[in-house]
Specification:
2 copies of one chain form a homodimer. By secondary structure, chain A is mainly alpha-helical. Chain A contains 14 helices and 2 strands; from the N terminus they run ααααββαααααααααα.
């Protein structure tokens, strides 16, 4: 690390920014989710359990950091950012189900279905997805035109075609089967990439970015999204379960297609670094104050969990 | 039947209207759902399998029939009506899952998870819910303000508090337990009532109904929704599995709380008829041409499947 002092500094700065934004996002999520005083209490407990299980809040932070570049107001960014976290959390709850990845551990805690049973976990996922759209309709302070545009962006990113659900379908279908690099990229562009790309785009849209800036930031989001997945595969290989908060080495054990399986540790590390550089270059094309976005890209590939 | 010639006539008329509207709704759903040419094909097959499994299309028809009273344009009503059918279908797919009601048969066909496996059934439900909001954002021809209002109404009806998901949670929690009449009503107001009420309300909102008319039609929707559930319980007791297209007598066998268990066959029949009358009276309060809505209320309690 000593030969990259500037990188190290940026990493500590970005961590401080993350901490602050995580607190803010959590405060909003606290307000936006139904309380456990409301009937039926159990479903709201399950929704909150998984939402407040210590996520990195990467998607909300990307929306906020992108919006702030263009001076977008917090009141408009936060509900949209939180709706993305609700969708991300729903996707994790459903992915962890016995019929899917069958994971018992997530972020160091029992998964939703282990804690609340399968029926309630399915419904908690459904409820978080629904609450995301409810939040977009009711709590964003955008004008109606922008609300609809943002909502459309998010719905497309969460749907089946080159999007969240479609990525999970492909991931399941290719489990244990031989896979090519382009196919692996297609899966991850959909499964993790679409929502990360969308998080950046809606931030830019709320900020009123020009078409050129939106295109540059979309590329930033796409590269950052892929970098995130490559880094995830690297972490799965090299980190311990304790560091990850989930079962390490599980992908290899279940014959999941990963970047490390396909390109080796060194190849995947190179790929992550290259994608990070490309993301930063794309952000810089806007000519705006994108240091924070660049630092986030670096955080994505250098994180330890 | 011979002593109610007017009722019989209305029933045949309403069936013809239903047939026509079902065709129209199906044509729109055909366009609004992703095709099986799009990747990943299997998820789109599963979404379409359950959507085109021969549903009554009650919710879309209620939206269309209510909107038409106020002269709302078809182009605006149909996508909204279809989004309600997508949400209804998603809820059936998830309710049928092994972790929930564990049903093998729906509308006379194998349920989604029997046909496509559990993982794909969960994802097909997720995808239909997402596609519903995507449809509301992209395909409704309403102005943006009305789009957001309709979307908010639908999100609330599909959520957890006095709404679709909450009703399913309560239904599961009370299975096999002693239940009171008011509690049973709370479950069904949420589980089936909220979406039926919403279907009527969004039709009225798209039609630009006055506050008084909206209130009257909301009451119509609430009564019709409860009548639907009472009639469902009656059918579960008296119809054959072949007529129902699902396993008859299953509710009693699984110790589900039903209106027939609580009030007996005659009591439940009286209740359905009373709710139907109250629904018709509420619709008439608008002073508009509500014969069709009244006939639908009657169809709801007189249907044989």
């Amino acid at each position: 690390m000593t030969q990259f002092p500037s990188k190290t500094k940026a990493l500590s700065e970005i961590k401080e920014y993350f901490q602050q934004k995580i607190r803010q996002v959590d405060q909003w999520l606290e307000q936006l989710l139904p309380t456990t005083e409301q009937t039926p209490a159990t479903i709201h407990e399950a929704m909150r359990y998984s939402t407040f299980a210590g996520g990195k809040r990467l998607r909300p932070i990307l929306t906020i950091a992108t919006g702030e570049i263009f001076g977008a107001p917090e009141q408009e960014l936060l509900p949209v950012a939180c709706s993305l976290e609700m969708i991300h959390t729903y996707s994790l709850i459903h992915d962890d189900l016995p019929a899917m990845d069958n994971d018992d551990l997530r972020r160091g805690m029992p998964t939703c279905h282990i804690k609340f049973g399968e029926a309630l976990a399915i419904l908690a996922g459904d409820a978080l997805l629904t609450q995301a759209f409810l939040t977009l309709a009711d709590y964003s302070t955008a004008n109606a035109e922008r609300k609809v545009r943002v909502l459309s962006e998010i719905a497309h990113a969460a749907a089946t075609t080159k999007a969240l659900i479609g990525g999970q379908v492909l991931d399941i279908q290719f489990e244990g089967k031989p896979i090519t690099g382009p196919m692996l990229e297609e899966i991850h562009r959909a499964k993790t990439g679409a929502l990360i790309r969308c998080a950046v785009r809606v931030g830019a849209i709320i900020g009123g970015a020009s078409d050129d800036d939106l295109a540059a930031l979309t590329e930033y989001g796409e590269k950052a999204g892929l970098a995130f997945q490559v880094a995830d595969d690297l972490l799965d290989e090299i980190a311990t379960s304790e560091e990850l908060g989930k079962t390490a080495g599980k992908d290899a054990a279940s014959h999941k297609a990963t970047y490390t399986a396909l390109y080796g540790l060194a190849g995947a590390r190179q790929m992550a670094d290259r994608l990070c550089e490309e993301a930063m270059a794309a952000a810089q094309r806007t000519g705006k104050e994108t240091q924070l976005l660049e630092a986030i890209a670096r955080f994505i590939v250098e994180r330890r969990s």
